[in-house]
Amino acid sequence: MLEARQLPGHALAELASLFVDVIKGGSLSNGKSLELFSTVLTALASSKENLAYGKGELNGEEFKKQLINTLCSSKWDPRCVIHLANMFRDIPLSGEELQFVVEKVLRMFSKLDLQEIPPLVYQLLLLSAKGSKKTVLEGIISFFNQLDKRQKEEQRVPESVDLEVATTPLDQLRHVEGTVILHIVSVINLDQDLGEELIKHLKTEQQKDPGRALCPFSVALLLSVAVKHRLQEQIFDFLKTSITRSCKDLQFLQASKFLQDLFPQQYDITAVILEVVKNSAFGWDHVTQGLVELGFSLMESYEPKKPFGGKAADNSYGLSKMPAQQACRLGASILLETFKVHEPIRSDILEQVLNRVLTKAASPVSHFIDLLSNIVVSAPLVLQTSSSKVTETFDNLSFLPIDTVQGLLRAVQPLLKVSMSVRDSLILVLQKAIFSRQLDARKAAVAGFLLLLRNFKVLGSLSSSQCSQAIGATQVQADVHACYNSAANEAFCLEILGSLRRCLSQQADVRLMLYEGFYDVLRRNSQLASSIMETLLSQIKQYYLPQPDLLPPLKLEGCIMAQGDQIFLQEPLAHLLCCIQHCLAWYKSTVRLCQGAEDDEEEEEGVGFEQNFEEMLESVTRRMIKSELEDFELDKSADFSLSSGVGVKNNIYAIQVMGICEVLIEYNFNIGNFSKNKFEDVLGLFTCYNKLSEILKEKAGKNKSALNNKTARSFLSMGFVSTLLTALFRDNAQSHEESLAVLRSSTEFLRYAVSVALQKVQQLEETGQTDGPDGQNPEKMFQNLCKITQVLLWRYTSIPTVVEESGKKKGKSISLLCLEGLLRIFNTVQQLYSAKIPQFLQALDITDGDAEEADINVTEKAAFQIRQFQRSLVNQLSSAEDDFNAKETQSLITVLSTLSKLLDPASQQFLQFLTWTVKVCKENALEDISCCKGLLSLLFSVHVLYKSPVGLLRELAQDIHACLGDIDQDIEVEGRCHFAVVNAKTAAPTVCLLVLGQVDKVLEEVDWLIKKLTSLGSDTSEDPSQASNQTQALEKGVILQLGTLLTVYHELVQTALPAGSCVDTLLRSLSKTYTILTSLIKHYIQACRSSTNTIPGRLEKLVKLSGSHLTPQCYSFITYVQNIHSESLSFVEEKKKKKKEDEAAAVSTVMAKVLRETKPIPNLIFAIEQYEKFLIHLSKKSKVNLMQYMKLSTSRDFRINASVLDSALQERNSEDTENEPHNDQSSTAEQTDENQEPKKKRQRKK
């Protein structure tokens, strides 16, 4: 072997040929002898002799090349592939030879046993140091991508038809993939260029086909490489942009039927990344670090934004539709799934989440708290090992905003049930916080204690919070599962209640939290009833005046506190009463039923405070009805301005009195059991409430401040609102009729009931919860929402607004309020309860009460509701002009568009709805602009899901043209009227701008398709026939869309549009169209370069259409726009001459307006000229003269009008003959002219 280099050339050639024959014959037993072969080939390459090859002669280098060529085109024995790949590392190879070798080795992958692939990949990677890095990486990734796909297919169809293909066991495949990834990472550590090449390759692939570039294998590979810091930023940026792009593309596709038909298969990167998490369970520890970092990076990059100066927009309860929100949710899913799969990394994830909750306190952290909550729920016992991290977080509770504290405590609540030490450390922190100087810290303490009281039934059985400090873990476990006695429990709870009592002497905010929380504590922990009720009784006694004839019954002055010249609310009295009312109602309904078996002492004690409360509330009700506003120092003459101390005090009093009235209304209605006297009391209380409410509205009307215009939040609970509405509108029981007639006689009361329902639904929509008991219980809220909807729907459909309005004095009619309420409810249900839409629609359909949940057809039920609103809308549209209510029509259209989202676009009902919408637009000449806007927007949003709206846009454009007339006044436009909605009042700017807005959306789709086309054109690896079929389908789609759009523009650019937004938008839209036409032409230039294809006839027709129907008309339109502006300028100039000083400002504004509105013109001309420039290129490339369809464009910078020139010259000649004797005068005149000209220009620049 050492002597091989000394051998003569012909001997080397013979030896080499012998080796090739042995390899071809498949009789190579091991790789040892190949070391000699590599030496022989290296020696051959450096040999200067001419060697005989076949009939001719070749030099050594050529001979070696021929041998390698023969070797790579012959059959290899799978056993010796690794040895051969190793051998080629030692041979000097040219780029071409290396490519040959690499491709051959990659082709051998499929013939090898799966276990042999990792070592072969390693050899290939080492070989790639010589070059062909891209080919190696592409080959490896596509091989494993194919294997993954095949595996998926087999899982989907277990009984595979193709039985010859041996199925690979899943775990074996994953282990092999993991090893290959490790090999690639280790080689990238040595050769950074390979890492750069990987990212570069995937970026270019992703442009062409994201499904092939970012498959589970390549994503796992990228995440493993990302752990090396040099490439980390690059990789994460690439992955994040890919994720948002994929989400945007999906959103884009879902919004358009036209695109869905062209792209039936949609690539979803979120599923791919979650699959990587699932695969990483097979020992891919090298991927987990990357996954965790990617998860946090996504959550931080796309976290909910905090609006400037406002409260953070928390949309965690809503359905996030935006790509950024989807990316943030994907980050959370990655972390949660990784947490479940990989134990070693759990504490790390938990620590990072907790750190972010603490450090990002200023920005919204709801997404991190949600993640923490899911983590705790998935494994509370595992968290015991990390409990020290949680207790560290508790130490910082008092520095966090109250929302964050509540979220955090709710999230870790399951952990408190299993870990004593965590619970104790929390209690210590909360007890310190109660005495803190910071108000937020005290509020946090109250929130924490209330949470403990609510969940304390399982929290252990020790008499005091401190005595469990030294208990071991075994005892903790025993304590959780042991039977705890309620006495020890109660002792613990009473200790906490003692701490909370101290808070009743603190600020209003702290007390408010307590009053809002007590009801929930009672409901979950009934044994605390007597303690809580006693606490509330002692608190209300401070403000209650027991003398039966004293008015008013409560000391309001005790509720406020003056500090310097400022006045604050100290005791939220209405909230206190509200809390008492709810607790008492719950106590009476629940505890008394259960107390039959208990001893008498407790019962007596219970009856004591119950009787006390009942007498007190009875007395307060009686006296509140008797009280006049003057008794509270509030009447029409009182000052309610917020700038003075007296005004602030009166505002506080008014809100408290109104709140007390509302609380008493609910109390008396509930205990009244439909007695007439009680309902008269309710009406009396409402009269008091209403007087104050009217005064406040009147004062707010005079004093136009934003603060005053907010209506105070109602104290009625959501459950009561639904009960009240059902009683008022739907209760037909004979026995209730007389008493309900009392309430039904007051229209004001009915309107109030509906408006409170509206307010509650609005609160639910904005925050995901409402005030009052069960306000945070989504299930109860949903049930109440269903009840309220039933009533409002019945009230609206059975009593039309027209009937009601005849007797109406002021304010909105009840029917209109019902309609507004329904609109809000339909929105809220789609946002918050999307999963429960079938049950919601089921609840509305009274006819079909007993259907199984599985049988509910959402489309049918939604179509039924839609038909009711369609009838109402048709009635509105066909009503006389005096009866037409624009507000109601607008709301009806919005309701229809909200409900139409529930229809399945493939269903018959959807098509019927679309046909109906088109018919309404065609037959109704709506002159109200907002209604017309709503109706057309509805038409577009529905039409786009059925097919492309270009045909519709053409008809609308023709109608606009017919309505507004032509830019050439001599031309009479034929009056084709397709849509009555387009009329003189609505055509411009309303319909015109809507049409242009829709045209822009179509242009965006076309632009997106052309980008896809370009990437498909540069893609050579797929099956060429399949790729060309798809390309042809896309090209056809693009050209047809653009062709129809050109006819839309053909109408619009000939329309005499008024100066302003329409002209401006149209000019910009035209520029965009020419830019898109140019990019289409560029695509064809590229296609002509890469293949010998001729351009399709369709494109020729499109170019012809643009030359005949668009470009010439664009130039006339530009002239028309300039004429409009020059007329407005000359008009201003005339004015200026009449009134010089006053009009200077007006002139400059008109000048600025003209400049602004003519700005798009140069851009449009440039776009047209660019289009023509590339057409010339394409004509040369394709040998087809496309410019024959283009007329020579006008030179806009220098136009000479012959007739004007002649008259000017004649005038000049006559002047010259007159002025000949006065030469010096004329020269001075010329000088002054010269001096003035620049001044005029300067003025124009302004």
From TrEMBL:
Record region (Disordered): 1209-1246
FANCI helical domain sequence ranges: 193-279, 464-697
Ranges of Basic and acidic residues composition bias in the record: 1212-1223
GO BP terms, alphabetized: DNA repair
Start and end residues of each FANCI solenoid domain: 1-188, 287-450, 715-939, 952-1205
Alphabetical list of InterPro entries matching this protein: FANCI, FANCI_HD1, FANCI_HD2, FANCI_S1, FANCI_S2, FANCI_S3, FANCI_S4
Protein name: FA complementation group I
